Amino acid sequence: MNQELLIRYIVGDATLEEKAEMAEWLDSDPSHLREFLAFRKLYDITLWHEKKKEAQITNPTKSKTEFHIRKLITEALKIAAVFVVALLGIRYFQPSLPKNEPVAMQTIFVPAGQRAELTLTDSTKVWLNAKTTFTFPNHFSADSRNVTLNGEGYFDVKSNKKRPFIVKTEKYNIKVWGTKFNVMAYSGINIFETSLLEGSVELLKPGIEKGAMILPNERIFIDNNQLVRAPISNFNHFLWKEGLISFDNETFPEMVSKLELYFDLKINTKNNKILNNRYTGKFRTKDGVEHILKVLQLSNKFRFTIDDKLNIITIE
């Protein structure tokens, strides 16, 4: 991908056509996402060091600073290809920033069929599932740690009793101090579920200070527009962060809903005989939806066709 386009996309200067081009490029190959994340990390490191140096010397205008940063990154990439590749295999910890350093928000989008892993500046670990958008600050404030999730994420939050960690979603917020939990909260669809594996979390309606506490091995989810509390029934579901899609005694429509969500496609089922069949199994996300359907064909009688232009699968 053209480096100038990558920079324009990161700093928010890309046109609508360029954003569409980036989305298509990210979605076309898993290696493109890794390349983008590595480039973004190099950009953030360069930006931080450049801002620190400029702050010690003078206060240049925004346009001059951006031009200098872009020139610096372009030159650095010509000689640092090995460094960019090396970034793919190491954790990224941002240096401690001055207290008066302004907070800059960063956003990561994970394309369909992919996943991502990152470590925040407080050492909290985050895994992001397919079709997830995650927004977080370049450093946390002194009294809070707030992030925004649209999709599915698994969080291993660094304990800090003085600074709660809050995951904001379209429907509810999750407030924690240190714990491991999973959140599924895709906007635009009536799906919300929080599953707690360790510690304790509080589920809050935006604008409300007190909410519902969740205990370990417990989940709260929306069912018929109401919140329901129940034990975690399928711990294999959380294997998605290792690249596995798990089905646990699920009906065909339930399975189809997951495949449509994670692979960003439409599945039309015309074979009513298989609708009540239940399925249990694990599949690697990287093998794709076509592989999953071929495996299911071994024990179920159905045919399927794929319309690549319309991104529709028809099952007969």
Walkthrough of the structure:
- This protein is an alpha+beta fold and 316 residues long.
- It folds into three domains: 1-92, no CATH class; 103-240, Jelly Rolls (Sandwich), CATH 2.60.120.1440; 243-315, Phage tail protein beta-alpha-beta fold, CATH 3.55.50.30.
- Helices cover 31% and strands 31% of the residues.
- Mean pLDDT is 78; it is low at 46-97.
- A hairpin with a 7-residue loop joins strand 8 and strand 9.
- The chain has helices at 3-11, 16-28, 30-57, 62-79, 81-87, 252-263, 288-297, and strands at residues 105-110, 116-119, 125-128, 132-137, 145-156, 165-168, 173-176, 180-185, 193-198, 201-204, 212-214, 218-223, 226-231, 244-251, 266-269, 278-284, 304-307, 312-315.
- Strands 1, 2, 3, 4, 5, 6, 7, 8, 9, 10, 11, 12 and 13 form a 13-stranded mixed sheet that branches.
- It starts with a helix and ends with a strand.
- The protein contains seven helices and 18 strands.
- The radius of gyration is 22 Å and the shape is globular.
- Helix 2 crosses helix 3.
Q: Give the tally of structural domains.
A: 3
CATH class of the largest domain: Mainly Beta
Please report which band the strand proportion falls in: under 5%, 5-15%, 15-25%, 25-35%, 35-45% or over 45%: 25-35%
Mean pLDDT: 78
Using the alpha-carbon principal axes, give the shape: globular
How far apart the termini lie comes to: 39 Å
